[in-house]
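Lab meeting, item 3. Inverse folding demo.
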């Protein structure tokens, strides 16, 4: 029975060693050195096999026969052994069994994040572009007001007074804003198309099956760098700062203090300001509401980045449960076998003690009868 138990433990250690070597080989493919790529996986597999076999054989020989106090010390050694084997074998076995699956899951998730980011940026571009028509109308309105004021429509004084100058400046600012928004929209739409092509290539890389993981990861990382740059260019073209500047000028128009005094000029200036201020306040409110909508829907860019297998197996552990279960079973099932052997030995020992007690009682009874 003990021989069969040792054979089972050795077979489990051998399987674990193979998966450990596979894990080191998967990570070693990212190294340029021949030793790390070709020989280190074999050395680590052999080392893991020897370490695992020696540890569990020693516990198999000592633990079942140990006394209660000795078992307490052995429990501490078992915990230390489990921790050591986790770093030496289990972790690499998980990489060997589920590393590629974890990386594939990360690539799919990052691709989905890239698509969601692009959709958000595209929606924001169209939202900002819708302001171009409104700013064009506002620009025309203030240019007309400025022309009318130059002819004395509001102050009854022809010429470029303070109100006319402010109206002209606002008209020009809003007109420039419209031109800038339209130009920015054209450029950003072109960049969006580039980003769509980049995401399409990203999807092709993820779906490709005939490429080794090293090449796949390198191509994926390169494409992510391109996407990050494109997203940065799209996001940098926001017109929020321009809208704020126009709102500031509109606010300055609304806050213009009419001149004091009873002169004809003062009265005419007050009259002009009272007439044009509502238009400025209305335009200011429109731009403020639009700015709030843009800020609420603002896309927060996150750096898209690749991930190594060692990190992926923890980040996406829920997707590779069979790999984790298999690696732990190969490495720690011998521990369960040792506990079962110890329980069996303990039961057999108790039975032998009871049988010896019965035999002793029987002998004593015979001697008493004979005497």
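The presenter then showed the designed sequence:
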């Amino acid at each position: 029975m003990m021989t069969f138990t040792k054979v089972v433990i050795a077979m489990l250690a051998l399987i674990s060693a193979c998966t450990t070597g596979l894990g080191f080989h998967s990570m070693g493919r990212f190294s340029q050195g021949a030793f790390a790529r070709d020989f280190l996986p074999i050395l680590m597999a052999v080392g893991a096999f020897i370490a695992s076999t020696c540890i569990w054989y020693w516990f198999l020989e000592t633990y079942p026969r140990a006394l209660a106090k000795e078992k307490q010390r052995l429990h501490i050694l078992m915990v230390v052994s489990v921790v050591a084997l986790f770093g030496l074998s289990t972790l690499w076995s998980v990489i060997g069994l589920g590393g590629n699956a974890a990386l594939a899951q990360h690539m799919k998730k990052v691709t989905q994040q890239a698509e969601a980011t692009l959709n958000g940026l595209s929606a924001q571009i169209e939202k900002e572009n819708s302001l171009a028509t409104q700013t064009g109308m506002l620009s025309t309105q203030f240019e007309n007001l400025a022309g009318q004021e130059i002819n004395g429509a509001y102050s009854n004084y022809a010429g470029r007074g303070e109100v006319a100058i402010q109206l002209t400046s606002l008209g020009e600012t809003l007109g420039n804003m419209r031109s800038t928004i339209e130009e920015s929209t054209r450029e950003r739409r072109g960049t969006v198309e580039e980003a769509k092509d980049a995401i399409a290539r990203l999807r092709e890389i993820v779906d490709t099956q005939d490429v080794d993981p090293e090449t796949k990861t390198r191509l994926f990382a390169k494409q992510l760098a391109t996407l990050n740059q494109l997203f940065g260019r799209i996001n940098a073209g926001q017109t929020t700062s321009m809208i704020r500047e126009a709102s500031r000028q509109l606010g300055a128009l609304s806050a213009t203090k009419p001149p004091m005094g009873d002169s004809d000029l003062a009265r005419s200036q007050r009259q002009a300001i009272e007439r044009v201020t509502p238009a400025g306040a209305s335009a200011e409110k429109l731009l403020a509401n639009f700015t709030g909508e843009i800020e609420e829907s603002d896309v927060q860019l996150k750096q898209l980045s690749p991930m190594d297998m060692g990190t992926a197996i923890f980040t996406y552990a829920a997707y590779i449960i069979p790999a984790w279960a298999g690696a732990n079973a190969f490495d720690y099932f011998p521990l369960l076998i040792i506990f079962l052997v110890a329980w069996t030995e303990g039961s057999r020992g108790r039975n032998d003690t009871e049988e010896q007690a019965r035999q002793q009682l029987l002998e004593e009874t015979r001697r008493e009868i004979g005497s």
